[in-house]
Design goal:
The chain is an alpha+beta fold. The protein folds into 2 domains: 91 residues, Alpha-Beta Plaits (2-Layer Sandwich), CATH 3.30.70; 39 residues. The protein is 53% helix and 27% strand. It has 3 helices and 4 strands. Strands 2-3-1-4 form a 4-stranded antiparallel β-sheet. It starts with 5 loop residues before the first strand and ends with a helix.
């Protein structure tokens, strides 16, 4: 039994557009695909990230991933719309042969699972904050050690100056 291929399109929007306009782009490209006969599997906004190199004088971009399924003809329609848009600074569509992507689960759909998820999130937050506290205390200990060394150097330099003054006084006598 062979799996039907699907497509993943990753596109980068200009970083200076407002969030409402980003949402309108998500809906626009999803609509273009459904009109072309494709099925949307997943649509994720990955957020603003730094680009590896400047594209059209932009150093950052808003990344969006769109997974869709269809006959392949819809890709040309989607890419033409992206090419004509000034807000899309880069796009790439890849044909995937593996298993279909799992759809994202929206929290809050089931009352019991939402409570369990919140407990898991609370415990993971505690672990993260504990790790941060450990880093902070380690940093403070290192700072104290560094401060102690600088104080030792200061006292050494004062002693060296006193010794030099004594030597000069002996030479003068």
């Amino acid at each position: 039994m062979t799996q039907q291929p699907y497509y993943e399109t990753m596109y980068i929007l200009r970083p200076d557009i407002p969030e409402e306009e980003v949402d309108s782009h998500l809906k626009k490209y999803s609509g273009i695909l459904t009109d072309a006969g494709a099925k949307i599997l997943d649509n994720q906004m990955r957020g603003k990230r730094r680009l590896a190199y400047p594209i059209s004088k932009h150093k950052e971009g808003i990344y969006v991933q769109l997974s869709h399924n269809g006959d392949g003809q819809h890709v040309a329609v989607l890419e033409k719309a992206m090419r004509l848009s000034e807000d899309v600074i880069r796009y790439l569509t890849v044909k995937q042969d593996g298993p279909l992507p799992t759809p994202r689960v929206v929290s809050g759909t089931d009352s019991n699972s939402g409570k369990e998820d919140s407990k898991d999130q609370d415990s993971s937050k505690k672990k993260i904050t504990e790790g941060k506290e450990d880093k902070k205390t380690n940093g403070k200990k290192e700072d104290k050690k560094a401060d102690g060394k600088t104080e030792d150097k200061k006292t050494e330099s004062k002693e060296n100056k006193k010794d030099e003054e004594k030597i000069e006084d002996k030479k003068a006598d």
